[in-house]
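Bug #77: duplicate submission created two jobs. Keeping one. Sequence:
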Amino acid sequence: MANELQGFDIGFFTASADLSAKQYYFVKLSSETQVTVCGAVTDKPIGVLQNNPESGEQAIVRCLGVSKVSADATLASGDVIGTSADGQAQPISLGSETTVHVCGQAIGAGASGTLQTAFINVTNGRGA
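Kept job's structure:
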């Protein structure tokens, strides 16, 4: 079962598109006040979307802390994760995938297509 804890959330962004089906996906800035779902593994996520806003509504983004994530691949406990091409979490290989960004670490294990628990830390902004 996926879990969450109080984290560092930013609540002054708005959704630049309908994100009502993208809760727990990685999002990126689309302007200085708007976010949208990551659309490439090389995108620079600002965090994980915590709510399900429609276009123009408030988007709450977790930048640091424990969050649920939508898994695009099977995650093992301890996997370093980044965004997939559709904004979901996927494992990344440190040192070999130099164009992706480290977004956190999986806590526990789970199958693709499920919600998993992860420690999110997008504040370092470094590539793998």
